[in-house]
Amino acid sequence: MKYVDQLNKEQQIELQNQYEVLSYGVDTIAPEEEFKDKIAKSIKKNQPLKVKLGLDPTAPDVHIGHTVVLNKLKQFQQFGHTIQLIIGDFTGKIGDPTGKATARKALTDEEVRHNAKTYYEQFGKVIDIDAVELHYNSQWLSKVDFTEVIQLASNVTVARMLERKDFHHRYQSNKPIYLHEFFYPVMQGYDSHILESDIELGGTDQEFNVLFGRQVQEQFGQEKQVVLLLPLIEGLDGIEKMSKSKDNYIGIDESPNDIFGKTMSIPDELIIKYFELTSNLTIDEVSQIRTQLENGILHPKDAKIRLAHSFVEMLYDKEEAKRSQVNFANIFQKNKMPEEVPEVVWGKELSIGILDLVTELDLLPSKSEVRRMIKNGGIRINQEKIIDPLTTVQVIDGIIVQVGKRKFVKLKLNN
Amino acid sequence: MKYVDQLNKEQQIELQNQYEVLSYGVDTIAPEEEFKDKIAKSIKKNQPLKVKLGLDPTAPDVHIGHTVVLNKLKQFQQFGHTIQLIIGDFTGKIGDPTGKATARKALTDEEVRHNAKTYYEQFGKVIDIDAVELHYNSQWLSKVDFTEVIQLASNVTVARMLERKDFHHRYQSNKPIYLHEFFYPVMQGYDSHILESDIELGGTDQEFNVLFGRQVQEQFGQEKQVVLLLPLIEGLDGIEKMSKSKDNYIGIDESPNDIFGKTMSIPDELIIKYFELTSNLTIDEVSQIRTQLENGILHPKDAKIRLAHSFVEMLYDKEEAKRSQVNFANIFQKNKMPEEVPEVVWGKELSIGILDLVTELDLLPSKSEVRRMIKNGGIRINQEKIIDPLTTVQVIDGIIVQVGKRKFVKLKLNN
Q1: Residues A120 and A183 in one domain
Q2: Do B112 and B205 sit in the same domain of this protein?
Q3: Which of A150, A162, A167 lies closest to B97 in CB terms?
Q4: Would you say residue A363 lies in a domain?
Q5: Which regions of chain A are under pLDDT 70?
Q6: Which one in A14, A238, B228, B405 has a CA-CA gap of 20 to 30 Å to B66?
Q7: Is B264 among the domain residues?
Q8: Contacts of A154 in chain B (CB under 8 A)
Q9: Which segment of this protein is annotated as the motif 'KMSKS' region (chains A, B) (predicted)?
Q10: CA atoms within 13 Å, Cβ hemisphere of B121
Q11: What is the CATH number of the domain that holds B401?
């Protein structure tokens, strides 16, 4: 008998409530029936669900795209469920041993801990990090021996593996798939087995690996986890998935002004999706904004201000949110300086070429980038646009160097 | 500089001699250049080559087909090289864990030792078994951990594995290949790495697995083994590869009379191939027989008598060879009893149906087989053919029961 059929009236309402919130914004729940029953079981037995999220220890840069899954974790937390964060350090410590590629260097224990800490701190801006279980999968995977590997592998067909989209594509186009890559889903599934996870979260691009955990748990005669796949959010360009490598991201660790400014630059079509998936507004609040936008009551720019405000508030606090909104208004709407300009003490030449000045200040990484920025009209000294890359600047106390729309530096002279 | 270029005159002759004998009858040497240089190195350094043969511990029935490889091992031994026999007990002890098939039971340690002993005893009929190194690969494979598995696997592409004929065929025809099966070649190669084998022998059907050892050794920065693939010999039917399951084999453990009789039944086209690959005649002797057969000087039947004689001599001794030849002549050529008929003490009913009698004596496994044999005129009592399956036999002392052409039993009464 299913747990959903064993609940009393009050419990049924609780189930309905949890199900509605937890399935909100989710791309795929597999299988939905089982998800409902897991929640029902948790309510009936008064026992939290174990909700797993696996993390790659090699890339700890967390951006607003991650809040899609972080917000979901937060909702689980709010219903009293347990979050299991797994740092996938086993493969990280092996490195990428692929023979023919430039071998990826194995991470040291220290690097793994450092990266885990980064996740920890940055995730702590969204979820209650103290209530989270943190696991390193090398703890159990390093103990698996060849016999067990063979037994794990015996439950998997090669054809099934080649169904995974990227494997299929590479096989079809004669690009190498290395045999150890087949073990990534197996290991991820093994993690679920060890932790007896009830739920695993992942992006839609993780579908194969996350579903694979069900198979491994079944092999061990265990109750299978339910999979929640969350949509991937497009980056600032509105096209590509948000990622560090595409430079179309809002970092969770960025300054309030940068978060605010970057949010203001998203395409209008993404406003609602960002609200739904990445902000901490309630279902009702988002639904209201949607209606107002559709009716023309709310201007897209004002919706974005609200969104940007909510991000800064979520990642910092109300004060910072207010301040960054004022700053933004000053720079973009009144074409003014921001309220606070960071100061840099200048101890070098007082007569210096613009290219040297901007690179010395680390405002841009190379002179050719400064040149390009000058061409685009993006470099100003005391609000005056620089046109000639050969310009020599006379540095005086309090002079302001501006790069692009959001980078300002005020130079202080030593003496 | 290659070793072949470092030999003096005498050593060059030795190289030529070894190379000629060791490559005789081999289907494929891969690569030939390296094989020559391995021998040259062994001569130059006065250091035996390590010649590996892997054995499946689940099927220890050795037949004349195995003498193809045993004779080759013997030649290596005669030149002073070292034979490494590997009992592949690691997988045998895991059993076949394939999920969907009827799981093959794992062998116990005791069964593995027993099967290894069987190989040992039967191989001892052809090669100098005391000079052989015997290894069990569970000794090292059970110690391999997941990290090492990943590293081994990272050197293999899935496409390369799917090049193996049977994998390719199964993938194409949508029959499952289980992931652990990909590890059989890897393990076999790992054995070569551990034992630092110079040469690995195998049947032509083992090409992929045996060549794979080169890749694993290379991964460990080791000198690569050379592969000698030996032809598979057809069985008595002249069509299928000799094997126990096809019942077309001559067992190494069979009685001299059976070995002799079965050898006489091979098709004429196979005579030379059997001489070349399975007998212990020299190259020159075989070449002489070939010429005589071609010129019609030697009748195929007489060639087969020589072959059968050589098998019994190889597996037993000269005496037995002579005796089985006389027996054969008596039965088949003069239609007489064999010289010696095995005696069985009969303590059961003295009046017994023919079906019961033959099955009680274990001459045939079932009554339906006795019935079929009677139909074919293959059952005789004191040389008199039985026609009716309902015949009742009156057992008297010394009565002879004959089944087929070669099975005779003389019944002795207890009192």
Answers
A1: yes
A2: yes
A3: A150
A4: yes
A5: 59-60, 95-105, 332-337, 339, 415
A6: B405
A7: yes
A8: 96-99, 178-180
A9: 241-245
A10: 10
A11: 3.10.290.10
Domain termination site, one of A289, A306, A333: A333
Domain, as residue range, for A325: 244-333
Cα of B271 vs its chain's centroid, Å: 17
Say what the pLDDT of residue B18 is: 97
Q: Are residues A51 and A144 in the same domain?
A: yes
A206 and A272 housed in the same domain: no
Total residue length of chain A: 415
Q: The tokens 């060639």 sit on which residue?
A: B303
Task: Please give, one letter per residue, the 3-state secondary structure of B149-210.
Answer: HHHHHCCCEHHHHCCCHHHHHHHHCCCCCEHHHHHHHHHHHHHHHHHCCCEEEEEHHHHHHH
On whether both A211 and A350 belong to a single domain, the answer is: no
B47 to B3, B39, B43, B80, B201: CA distances (angstroms): 13, 10, 7, 9, 19
Task: Read off the pLDDT of residues B382-391 as tens digits, 9 standing for 90 and up.
Answer: 888 899 999 9
Residues written for chain B? 415
CA dihedral A73, A77, A83, A85 (to 10 degrees): 50
Total CB pairs under 8 A between chain A and B = 127
Whether A217 and A151 share a structural domain: yes
End of a domain among A333, A353, A369? A333
CATH code of residue B152? 3.40.50.620
Same domain, yes or no: B167 and B279: no
Which residues between 63 and 102 in chain A have a beta carbon less than 8 angstroms from any beta carbon of chain B? 90-91, 94, 96-99
Range B161-179 average pLDDT? 89
Q: How far apart are CA B321 and CA A13, in angstroms?
A: 91
CATH of the domain at B266: 1.10.240.10
Please indicate, yes or no, if residue B406 is contained in any of the structural domains: yes
C-alpha A183/C-alpha B219 separation (Å) is 19
Distance between start and end Cα atoms, chain B: 81
pLDDT value at B338 more than 50:
yes
Question: Looking at residue B388, what is its pLDDT?
Answer: 92
> Distance between CA A83 and CA A199 in Å, rounded?
10
Of B149, B159, B176, the CB nearest to A149: B149
Question: Is omega for the bond preceding B31 within 30 degrees of 0, making it cis?
Answer: yes
Q: What is the pLDDT of residue A102?
A: 45
Total domains, chain B: 3
B275-320 pLDDT, tens digit per residue, is 999 998 988 999 999 999 999 889 999 999 999 999 999 999 999 9
Q: Which amino acid is at A187?
A: M
**For the segment B229-239, what is each residue's pLDDT rounded down to a tens digit?**
999 999 998 88
- Residue B101: per-residue pLDDT: 41
- Is residue B102 scored above 50 in pLDDT? no
Tell me the CA end-to-end span of chain A in Å, nearest whole number: 82
How far apart are the C-alpha atoms of B68 and B233, rounded to whole Å?
8
Other beta carbons within 10 angstroms of residue A396's beta carbon come to 11
**CA-wise closest residue to A216 among A197, A180, A190:** A190
Tell me which H or E stretch contains A410: strand A407-413
| C-alpha–C-alpha distance, residues A294 and A286, integer Å | 12
Residue B338 lies in a domain: no
Residues in chain A within 8 Å Cβ distance of B142: 145-147
Nearest CA in chain B to A170: B159
pLDDT in tens, B113-142: 888 888 888 899 889 999 999 999 999 999
